Amino acid sequence: MSPFFVMSLLFGLTFGQTASLCAPSEYTIHVEKRECAYCLAINTTICAGFCMTRDSNGKKLLLKSALSQNVCTYKEMLYQTALIPGCPHHTIPYYSYPVAVSCKCGKCNTDYSDCVRERVRTNYCTKPQKLCN
């Protein structure tokens, strides 16, 4: 291999990891319960952005450690709780949701992340809407 090719490869791998654009991003969650009179629109932050991955077309030739499919995921998060208005007394009117404090490119953890991109829009209200900041 030529020294130019090796240097180009090393530069590409180094720059590729630093070029990841994964950061907290504003997002609105719409929450409603069947028993409650209103839908609550909650402004929060989620992790979103671009992370470098390595193409797995050569997976038979490479070690598993050389293959990485990184996603933009939570590095640090906290949970907040909102009160859904218009709920009867027998209903628990609280909803807890994650707030991204910082993000990283890494493996998707299904314990707290949805690792599949949703194609159908389900984040909407069917009842009158109230805004929560």
Automatic annotation (TrEMBL):
This is Thyrotropin subunit beta. It comes from Lanius ludovicianus. PROSITE patterns: GLYCO_HORMONE_BETA_1, GLYCO_HORMONE_BETA_2. Its main location: secreted. Belongs to the glycoprotein hormones subunit beta family. Residues 21-125 form the Glycoprotein hormone subunit beta domain. The gene is Tshb. The keyword Glycoprotein applies. Heterodimer of a common alpha chain and a unique beta chain which confers biological specificity to thyrotropin, lutropin, follitropin and gonadotropin.
